[in-house]
Known about the structure:
single chain, four-stranded antiparallel β-sheet, 1 helix
Amino acid sequence: xxxxxxxxxxxxxxxxxxxxxxxxxxxxxxYELTICDRTGKFLACIPLENGRFDLVFIHSxxxxxxxxxxxxxxxxxxxxxxxxxxxxxxxxxxxxPSDAENxxxxxxxxxxxxxxxxxxxxPLMISIVEGHGVRIGGKFIPFTMWLPPESMLILAARKAxxxxxxx
Length: 167
């Protein structure tokens, strides 16, 4: 009877050799933010660095910046969802949160509110006040790039597979 050791060694080599390839595939998977009009017509798809983006606008009453911070995660079915994890604003009062939700702090003169809200998509109207858009990787992209103010947009996310070889 021959020893099973050579077969086990071959199995281990093949299994361990496949691990770096599996890691490359997982690292290559990322998310994209999709932007559609009210009819569902696809307007844009923007790659997300680390699955993160900010929804930014100027508050129509206070005329101060508001930043909603999102990260894309998979839900229990593996579908991408938009997770609002933080809200940043400069002025308290009309139209701004007054409760602590998941934690409230003052940082560099701005209010930061920890949040935990999840959305499959976010329908929104483009503000008539300039400065309404998304910030991705430090770059601001205004919604008026696609449609005029008072138009409806729908934000959602999808998975994107990037070829690790760069092709």
